[in-house]
Amino acid sequence: STLCNPFTEIVLNEDTAQGVVPSCCPIQATWCSGCAAAGLDSCERCLGGYTKIGGHCTACVDTVGWSNYDQQNCFDADCSEYKIRGSSSNESCCKCGGGQHEATPFVYVAEPALL
């Protein structure tokens, strides 16, 4: 079991086949966000739903509906530059460095209300 200093570190818990493996991450380190396993000064592995871009774990969603000619979606497909219906797995799948990395823009509805 890893003992983190509660004043300077946060505990990261990575689920593995052998069970939960804890590691410690400095509270002030921005790279801890979305991280499952901390190294000495960077994230070793990201949590599910995150992919490493520029050394940081970034929220990511595979492109909806993408599949290769074998009907494999991003989970099963190999990473490739080969385009299928205009998009490759490298462009569409988080595990390949593609996918959707930005939030969809939205606007709050501002209407007058009677109180």
Task: Tell me what the structure shows.
By secondary structure, the protein is mainly beta. Helices cover 3% and strands 28% of the residues. It has one helix at 89-92, and strands spanning 9-16, 19-26, 35-38, 43-46, 50-53, 56-59. The strands form three sheets. The chain has a two-stranded antiparallel ribbon with strand order 1-2.
Separate helix tally: 1
Low-confidence stretches: none
Structural class call reads: mainly beta
Major sheet: arrangement of strands: 1-2
Which sheet architecture does the biggest sheet show?
A: 2 strands, antiparallel
Outline:
The chain is mainly β and about 120 residues long. The protein contains one helix and six strands, in the order E-E-E-E-E-E-H.
Summarize the helices and strands and which ones pair or pack:
Elements: E1 9-16, E2 19-26, E3 35-38, E4 43-46, E5 50-53, E6 56-59, H1 89-92
Antiparallel strand pairs: 1-2, 3-4, 5-6
What labels would you give this structure?
115 residues; two-stranded antiparallel sheet; two-stranded antiparallel ribbon; 3% helix; flat
